[in-house]
Every structure is written in C-alpha cells, then in structure tokens.
Amino acid sequence: MLYNLGIGIEIDGGRISIFGDNENIIGIRLSISIIVFFYIILEDPFSFGFWRFLLFIPIPDMLMFMFATGSRLAFISFALEFVVGVIFYQTKKRWYKIILLILAIGVSAYFFQLMKQSEILINRLLLTRETGDLAGRDIIWLELMPLIKANFIWGVGETGYKAFTYRIFGGDKSPHNVILEVLSYTGIIGLVLYLNFIAKATIQSWKTFKINNYLLPFLLMIPVFGDIVSGQALNAKIVWAILAFAVSAVFYSNGKME
Q1: Is 148 in the same domain as 127?
Q2: Which of 47, 77, 91, 127 is most buried as measured by Cβ atoms within 10 A of its Cβ?
Q3: pLDDT, tens digit, for every residue of 224-250?
Q4: Same-domain check for residues 147 and 235
Q5: In this structure, how many other beta carbons lie within 10 angstroms of the beta carbon of residue 106?
Q6: Same domain? 158 vs 208
Q7: The pTM is what?
Q8: CA separation for the pair 110, 108 (Å, rounded)
Q9: Distance CA 214, CA 96 (A)
Q10: Is 19 found in the same domain as 41?
C-alpha cells in the first residue's frame, strides 16, 4: 500500500527502496510473502474458505514492487521457490495436480510479462549474464582473501573485520557472502559449525515435507541459501525466523512428534 501511495519511497540508481531499507532485503521479504500467500490460497491452513482467494489481489503489486527493487537475488529466489513448489506439491487428487500445472504455466507467463516492465531488473540480469557483474562483490571478495588466509583457523572477530574494511575501503563493507563473512569473523572452525547448523535446518525442513507433506519450510529455505551466498543473512531477522520455522515445523504440523 505504501509503495502504491509513494510513501517513504526512495530511488537510488533506478532501484526502489522504502524508508531507507536495503533493496535486496525488501525484495527477499516480498518473494517470501508471495510464496506464503500462494500456500495459503492452495492449502487454506487457517480455514479462510472462499475469502483466501482475496490474497490474489495484492500479488501483482507485490511482484511489481519486488521487480522495482532491482534485486536479482529476490527474483531468482522467487523463481526457484515457485518452480520447486509446483514440482514437489503433492495431492491425492490427480486432476488437482493437472489444474495446478496449467495454472502454474499461466501464472509464469503473467509473471514474466510483469518482469518485462521492470527496466532496472532486466538490465541488472543482463549485466550478470553478459559481463558477470556482481555489483562490486567480486572486488570485496578478492580484497578479503589475504585477511582470511592469514587468520584461517580463528578469524579476526567482527571488530577486526570492521577495522580491516575501514582501512581498505574507508568504511564498513559487507562481503555479501556469509561464508566469507563467517570465515573472516571466526575462521574455519566457526564456518564448520555454522554450515552444520544450516545443513541440519535444511534436513529438518525436508523431513517435515516427507513426514507431514508440509512443503512450506523447505521452500522458504531457498531464499535463505540465496542470502547466504549473495546477501547479508547474518543480519536479516527474517532469515533467522525461517531457520527457526524450518527446524521446529516437524514437531507441530499435523500434530506429529518425530
């Protein structure tokens, strides 16, 4: 609503944000919200009945807002969530699956028509494909390599990392890659512990799907992976909320305890 009313909207390099928030984080939140809306419409977990179809109304505006952020990460995450959701969605009614596939094709066509209207996203995607443009991430990654190699076991901590980026870049710079960030902070020991946690959360979300046919936690792990590889997952509250959801959903869905 605020996006449509132009309240709090800021434009930087053609990319839209709201109230000074990070464009990638806004895009990720929107991609997650749209997938949750689709899940509610399909499964009706809150027994909304016919009223749940009203959730279709804001989705086009949410998609346009997501595209307007210019976030490649949000676009790719949403596309993967949508495709994986359609492939793995299970129902005992074969005709329901056929209808879902037909609807998915129609929604995909509409999705790409909307995307074509976003010049900033198209340009950023083309830059990535044609020139390998990573929005300066590759430069930061190269500069971090000597720091990581010199402190491979224990890292330098958050304060040591900030001191390094102030010296090299003149300010606090995120690497937009959690693997390199954790390596810098805590070395290989911390990275192993962190990746072990992420792996367990992923496995647990898959168990939730296999045991209870509850796909949503597994789908929401997709943007988490994207934010780990090319974002700032350590500082994003929604990432930690999804991880908590992923590891706990198996205990509550359908009342089963495993």
Answers
A1: no
A2: 77
A3: 999 998 888 898 899 999 999 999 887
A4: yes
A5: 10
A6: yes
A7: 0.84
A8: 5
A9: 17
A10: yes
Distance of CA 149 to the CA centre of its chain: 29
CB 190 within 8 A of CB 234: no
- Which tens digits make up the pLDDT trace of 53-110? 999 999 999 999 999 998 888 988 999 999 999 888 877 777 777 887 888 888 888 8
Query: Is residue 196 domain-shared with residue 157, that is, in the same domain?
Result: yes
Domain C-terminal end among 99, 133, 167: 133
Full domain range(s) for residue 213? 135-258
Task: Indicate if 139 and 96 belong to the same structural domain.
Answer: no
Over residues 21-27, the mean pLDDT reads 89
Same domain, 8 and 128: yes
Do 34 and 100 lie in one domain? The reply is yes
Task: Indicate if the alpha-carbon torsion angle 109, 15, 82, 32 is positive or negative.
Answer: negative
* CB contact at 8 A, 54 and 40: no
Closest residue by Cα to residue 239 from 248, 247, 249, 228: 228
User: Which phi and psi angles does 14 have, rounded to 5°?
Assistant: 90, -10
Dist CA 114 CA 149 (whole Å) = 45
Tally of domains within the chain: 2
**Three-state secondary structure call for residue 10:** strand
CA–CA distance, 64 with 98 (Å, rounded to integer): 28
Burial of 165 (0-12, 13-18, 19+ CB in 10 A): buried
